[in-house]
Every structure is written in structure tokens, then in C-alpha cells.
Amino acid sequence: MKVTTRGSFPISYEGLRVKQKVRGGVHHQGPNEIGVLGVSGIVKMIKAVMMMNTQGKPRLAKFYDFLPVEKQQELIRGVFSVLSSRPENVSNFLEIDSLFGPDSRLVYKHYATLYFVLVFDGSENELAMLDLIQVLVETLDKCFSNVCELDIVFNYSKMHTVLDEIVFGGQVLETRSDEIMKAVEEISK
After folding, report:
1. Are strands 171-172 and 104-111 parallel, antiparallel or unpaired?
2. What's the CA angle centered on 178, arms 177 and 180, to 5 degrees?
3. Keywords assigned by UniProt (predicted)?
4. Is residue 166 classed as helix, strand or coil in its secondary structure?
5. How many Cβ atoms from other residues are within 10 Å of residue 186's Cβ?
6. Are residues 143 and 185 in contact, defined by beta-carbon separation less than 8 angstroms?
7. 85: burial class by Cβ within 10 Å (0-12, 13-18, 19+)?
8. Average pLDDT of the residues of the chain
9. pLDDT one-digit tens code per residue, 135-185
10. What integer pLDDT is reported at residue 44 of this predicted model?
11. Residue 72 in contact with residue 83, Cβ under 8 Å?
């Protein structure tokens, strides 16, 4: 039996059924979707999640590959530079190979004073990532009743808890807002 852990909870890969073959492995589905299981383990698909304000200050940034802090700051500045120079009426999808390497894509959504950004590799569906941003925002709205920039600043650990319930280790764990909220409430007890 192959077992991995998510936090302190073991996840068993027994009983999973093949959903579809994808580059680098096979996508499996069980009670919750767990992502791509490749020959050498789980293949990372989401590279980073960022929330930054319209002045470029990062309010939350999570990278799923090890990067030195200086490199993270450089990437955040680069992403903000690209986003802030884009007109409102263009696509929310970008090829971002120059910053994150080959086959990297970025999707973002601008809400009020915040940019919500996901960076991922080419094996991930861009529309699904845009929908994931929507799930994140809806869940945060439930947590904070109309989330704003100050909620992110002053509730940093809760923000990471919510994000970890949605994306962990570069893999999407849950997309149902109600289930995410139940897990966050359970952890907060």
C-alpha cells in the first residue's frame, strides 16, 4: 500500500480508479481528487499562489518549489510588473516562461484592490485554474464575510489554512467551498 501524508492525515492510494492519462503520469480520482501520480510520485502542477494589492505589495505568496526569498521577491515583482501593465479588456491568461521557466502559465483575477494569481505548468487547464481562484475567493468571503485586503493582512494563518485546504504541495485537494469551510472550522477548534 502506497501512503502519503497531508498534514498528519494519511492518504491511501489503494482503491483509486484511473480517471485519465496525462503527460507525466495518470490522473486518479478517489473520494477527493488528489492529482497526478507519476512514476516518481506526485507531479507538481501548481507552482505558486499569490495575492497582491494594486501597488504590488504581496499579501500572500506561496511557492510550491523551494526558492530562496530573493528569487521569490523577484518573481513577485515580475508578476506584478506584467499584471499592472495589462489593460482591463485583455485575457486573464498568460504564458510566463520568462519568469517561471518553460511551459509555465499564469491566470489571474482582479477583485477590488487585490490580484489573485495562480502560476502553473502546461499540463493544467487554464479555465479550471480560473475557477479555482473563484472557489478561493468565495471561500474567503464565507470566512470573513466579504473578504478585503485587511482580512488577508490580519488573518495570515487562517488564510494559509484555507489555501492549504484547497491546494497542498502544488496539487488541488478540494474545490467545494462548503467542504473547505468545514475543514477550516475543524482545524480552528
Report:
1. unpaired
2. 65
3. Cytoplasmic vesicle, Golgi apparatus, Membrane, Protein transport, Transport
4. helix
5. 9
6. no
7. exposed
8. 81
9. 999 999 999 888 889 989 999 899 999 999 999 999 999 999 999 999 999
10. 64
11. no
**pLDDT value of position 27:** 44
Which residues lie closer than 8 Å to 187 by C-beta, 6 or more apart? 161
- Listing DSSP states for 103-140 in one string gives TEEEEEEEETTEEEEEEEETTS-HHHHHHHHHHHHHHH
Sketch out the chain's domains with CATH numbers. Answer: 3-42 (no CATH), 46-188 (3.30.450.60)
- Report the amino acid identity of residue 170: G
Alpha-carbon gap, residue 157 to 110, rounded angstroms: 23
* 36 within 8 A of 23, measured Cβ to Cβ: no
What is the rounded average pLDDT of the residues 92-102?
A: 91
- Grid coordinates representing 122 are 502546461
* AA letter at 20: Q
User: Contact at 8 Å (CB) between 128 and 101?
Assistant: no
DSSP string, 29-94: ESSSEEEEEETTEEPP-EEEEEEEETTS-EEEEEESS---HHHHHHHHHHHHHHHHTS-TTS-SEE
* Sole residue written with cell 487562517: 158
Cβ-based neighbour number of residue 112 at 10 Å: 10
69-79 pLDDT, tens digit per residue, is 999 999 999 99
Q: What is the pLDDT of residue 167?
A: 95
